[in-house]
Specification:
Distance between the termini: 44 Å
Shape: elongated
Radius of gyration: 20 Å
Number of helices: 2
Strand content: 5-15%
Mean pLDDT: 75
Number of strands: 2
Order of helices and strands: EEHH
Organism: Cucumis sativus
Keywords: Nucleus, Transcription, Transcription regulation
Low-confidence stretches: 1-13
Largest sheet: 2 strands, antiparallel
InterPro entries: bHLH_AtIBH1-like (IPR044549), IBH1-like (IPR044660)
Main location: nucleus
GO biological process, one term: regulation of DNA-templated transcription
Oligomer: single chain
Length: 90
Amino acid sequence: MDQYYDTCESKGIGKVRWQRRGRRGGRHGGGGGGSVHMKMRKLQRLIPGGRRLKPDRLFLKTADYIMQLRSQVHVLQALSKIYDPTLSNY
């Protein structure tokens, strides 16, 4: 179970959520970085709308999401070249 902590606001840092990582070798397999089940759960949390998808649909949605992110990167790079011509050499 993940536990979260808030920093003290009196330090002027504001609220920060800290996540404690679980031990390896727990009830979900462990060993080589986590079981397939745990990796699927992590992927479901990363992909928008992924929590309600079955694995086959999750993989398709993941591929679509990667392509969408790539497109956004290309658009941002093009915009940065337009607004800052010194970056056109990169």
